[in-house]
Amino acid sequence: MEDCVALYMTIMEPLYAIIHPLTYKLYQNDLVKYAMAALGSQFLDCPEHRKIGNPFHHYCIKMIVAPHLEADLSSMQAIFLTEVFARFRSPKLDVNLSLAFRRLCKELVDSSDGDRSSIYARLNPAEINDAVRFDQQSNSPETSRDVIIENMWRQWINWEARQRLRVVCVAFDTHQAIYYEQERCQPTATTENTFFAVPCPESLWIATTSQEWFALIHSSDCVAVPFRHPEALAYETLGQLPLPTRYLALTSLLAALPDWDRRRVPNPDPSAQFFIDQIHNLFDNFMPAHAHLALYHTPLRQLLALTGESWVLGRKIISHSDFEAMKPVIRSWTVSQFGELATWYACNFLRDSFSEDYGTTRPFHISDYWSIYTCTLIVWAFGQRHSTVLPSSGNSVASASRRTSSLTLRGSEDAAEVLKLALFWIDTVISRGPKQLGSLPILTDAAVVVEAARIKLAPNKFSQPPALLLDACNVLDKLREQGARLF
Predict the structure, then answer these.
(1) Residues 217 and 263 in one domain
(2) Which partner from 124, 168, 216, 433 sits 20 to 30 angstroms from 314, CA to CA?
């Protein structure tokens, strides 16, 4: 378990930054520890060992729904971490947010202005000195300057941790809403109407004693800095913000994009372009942003239903007419500007995911496999619109697809060749730009990209793989064999 916790702290905690190091070390909470271990287990090198995360997760679920669970900060942290595992790594296929997480988000958002002013006003060194003088004048024998500072430090830790938890809960809420095309549990919470504090300087957060913390407070500005207006951020400013705040900035900009009816493909909304341009300016080199934008421009549920042959996220569409109605939506989408934009963004994400150094130059995110899968479906659908008019046999992309469709993988050399061909296909799309794909004459079907995704997501890389991953691999197998028939 300790190895799993260490992996969580190394890979995932920098993104969330909600666990106070000293508090966790001195007062280890089993529920938080198991929740961290469950997530950390997914980064173990050996696939066989990753399944240890499942019993850790089951323990957390059991404790969270127990009637005697204390409503303290540790429980709130565990609820959030357990939700992340449940939505992306659980052996049970269920993308719906839990009641516990919904309640947590509501409590954090509703209490956003709770103790901010009182806590930070009392952090002023002058206020602390006044409190000491008052106690001395009242002849209080048990209160000293050190005791007051110690108590205020503990209050500050609790307040700061709650602020950080609010940030990541709201950001994750938007993340899952886009990835699964479903409602946010707090759809009205924005940086305009909810207080989101920029995390304090790292030196304050990792201080090991109240005196060290107070000395840092005494020599620096300790006022809570609210995070607002991500649409006005400059790239240089973004780079100075802590990683959780950058996560919030991205999801806030995504949440500001206007919603659209997935049952019909609209023309691009001019009001969306400002936010899309800002995402490009700030996150052009952050590939998950491209995956989010690809999914925003995609009627995801219809695409999942088509490729899953009426199965969508573990549920079957009973009505035949409802299922048939989705097919023309996808056909119209693939030849629309929305379809072209989605394909271009998807290719940008997949180029990074299919590269040789993927997972070594940066840690893979716990939801990356879903991004790879859905971006592959987008590319496959786009390729299908061209597959009825095959280019000449001398065309390199067409040859790549035919070579892949007839290739039986025999080992790492064949897999490397597939990935190379897929990257060539993807680079061809990217080179044209997001608004010129409709005039691209050379593309045939994207079988090579589907095969590359199968290699990346092969279930034999996981022991007892997440249900979503197993479902994704089954669909990719079908697309490889009979994708054109579905279209």
Answers:
(1) no
(2) 168
Q: Decide if pLDDT at 221 tops 80.
A: no
Same domain, 217 and 356: no
Q: Indicate if 419 and 308 belong to the same structural domain.
A: yes
Predicted confidence at residue 6, as pLDDT, reads 94
Do 14 and 66 lie in one domain? The reply is: yes
CA distance 349 to 333: 20
> Which segments of 335-466 does DSSP mark as H helices, in order?
337-353, 368-384, 396-405, 412-432, 447-456
Say yes or no: 159 and 114 in one domain: yes
Q: What's the structural domain count of the chain?
A: 2
**pTM of the predicted model, to two decimals?**
0.88
Kindly state whether residue 441 falls inside one of the protein's structural domains. Answer: yes
Same domain for 343 and 412, yes or no, is yes
Per-residue model confidence (pLDDT) at position 348 = 94
Q: Output phi, psi for 318, to 5 deg.
A: -75, -45
Please give the Cα distance from 188 to 85 (Å, whole number).
25
Range of the domain at 390: 258-486
Closest by CA to 295, choosing from 123, 127, 180, is 180
Which residues are CB-contacts of 238 (< 8 A; sequence separation ≥ 6)? 246, 249, 282
In a domain, 347, yes or no: yes
CA distances from 433 to 56, 78, 293, 436 (A): 45, 43, 15, 6
Output the six-digit token pair for 242. 């802590």
Which CA distances in Å does 65 have to 60, 98, 100, 167, 450? 9, 10, 8, 24, 40
Q: Looking at the structure, do residues 218 and 266 belong to the same domain, yes or no?
A: no
CA within 13 Å, CB half, 186: 28
| Whether the Cβ atoms of residue 17 and residue 199 lie closer than 8 Å to each other | yes
